[in-house]
Amino acid sequence: MASFFNGNLRRTAWRIAALVLCVVAWHLATRERINLGVVTFQNVPPPGEVAESAWSLLQSPLVLQHLGASLRRVFIGFGLAAITGVVLGLAIGRARWAEDSLLPPLEVLRPIPAVAWIPLAILMFPSSEASMVFITFVGALFPVLLNTVHGVEAVDARLVASARSLGAGRLAVFREVVLPGALPSVVTGLAIGMGTAWFCLVTAEMISGQFGIGYYTWMSYTIQNYADIVVGMLFIGVLGMGSSALVRRAGQALMPWRAVQEKRK
């Protein structure tokens, strides 16, 4: 138990040190105005200036409106993508007719970037709010879908055959063998999908004229407020990391046998 605790403590300290080193490197690069030709830090705001802008935003009454708008859009879009992606992924992974009917059009749509959906989303939905939720939904859908499909297809056929030989019907095999076997991949897809949803947030909120962290970042760019651009980016990064961690924690709660396996290693 002590060795496990010490190991986790060392890993946490190492991760914090890695973040500190990145901030130090950022500070040195901006202070020395490093210009490597391909990339330059001459116009990049230093960490201190970004911290001041972040503190000003946190003290502003608008911060709750920006955060609330973005969180609402991301979680609605992600929730719809999670339900749709898992259901379609389970169907495609288990039924050949679903794979032949649903996967080809989905594979055609998958490479289309979120920004390319903006004009069509404006035409399809009567409100900008629904359009932004749709862009977030599209961004999160395909990681969830593909990971679910791969998880179902990776279930050992011998386990399915063994369950059937013991008299299990289709529903029992699906519930007791396929779902637990595919769940690790499904959780991975959900975590990636949550991160992608935040990634698409700036694109989605480009068509918004009021609130949101992505909108705040974009407007900071248009008025050339460079420190606020970095503040918006960091907010999106921290929120995306935190929400993805919550998804992984929820997935671990659904897979108690994985915790037992980790302890045995």
What descriptive keywords fit this protein?
single chain, 265 residues, mainly alpha, 0% strand
Describe this structure in words.
By secondary structure, this protein is mainly alpha-helical. The protein is 81% helix and 0% strand. It contains twelve helices and no strands. Helix 3 packs across helix 10 (213-222) and helix 6 packs across helix 8. The model has no long low-confidence stretch (mean pLDDT 86).
Can you give me a brief rundown of this structure?
With 265 residues, the chain is an all-alpha fold. It has helices at 2-31, 47-59, 62-94, 96-109, 118-124, 128-153, 157-165, 170-199, 201-205, 213-222, 226-254, 256-264. The two termini are 13 Å apart.
Gap from first CA to last CA = 13 Å
The number of E-state strands comes to: 0
Q: How would you sum up the major sheet?
A: none
Low-confidence stretches: none
Strand content: under 5%
What is the alpha-carbon Rg in Å?
22 Å
List the helices and strands and how they pair.
Elements: H1 2-31, H2 47-59, H3 62-94, H4 96-109, H5 118-124, H6 128-153, H7 157-165, H8 170-199, H9 201-205, H10 213-222, H11 226-254, H12 256-264
Helix pairs in contact: 2-11, 3-4, 3-6, 3-8, 3-10, 5-6, 6-8, 7-8, 8-11, 10-11
